[in-house]
Write a structure and sequence with these properties.
Length: 162
């Protein structure tokens, strides 16, 4: 079920200023998010129709930003015992709208690139550990996410039903 808000998920708009030279954007200011012990920053570059996720783990906070291009971003509550399993939020993130999302532990996230190319940045509160990851397929019927695509470009990990 799609919802406007999920408990623990925060959506923020980045601070920016500009002049004739261009723009300066504050990508992360701890005062906006609290005292998370972030340890790793990653980014991925993908082309139109690439869909990544639904991925997550039960220990990591993630701060998600689309630096360039446009994506459809989905956060899914994957906490089996939290009372909200399967509820999700869907929003557009782009280099232009400067929206940023904090994804708490136990939530999965996925994104679909809707521009020619997009740069997806994520800040992590714990180091990536493949063994602790969970994955749901992008079209898992328990979630019924209304993706605006029927044949996305997927990795092997995102294609296999588990």
């Amino acid at each position: 079920m799609v919802v406007d808000r999920l408990p623990g998920v925060l959506v923020n708009t980045l601070h920016s200023c500009g002049d004739l030279r261009g723009e300066n954007v504050v990508l992360f200011d701890q005062r906006d998010y609290g005292d998370f012990p972030f340890v790793q920053d990653n980014y991925s570059v993908s082309r139109r129709d690439v869909l990544r996720g639904i991925h997550g783990d039960r220990q990591t906070f993630k701060v998600i930003t689309c630096l360039s291009g446009t994506i459809v971003f989905v956060v899914v509550d994957c906490r089996v015992h939290g009372g909200h399993f399967g509820e999700f939020m869907m929003l557009e993130l782009s280099g232009e709208n400067k929206k940023q999302v904090v994804v708490p532990p136990g939530f999965g996230n996925a994104h679909l690139v809707t521009s020619d190319q997009a740069i997806f940045h994520y800040k992590l509160s714990s180091h990536y550990d493949q063994a602790s990851q969970f994955t749901y397929t992008w079209d898992d019927p328990r979630f019924a996410i209304p993706w605006p695509i029927t044949h996305p470009i997927l990795s092997d990990r995102d294609s296999v039903r588990g």
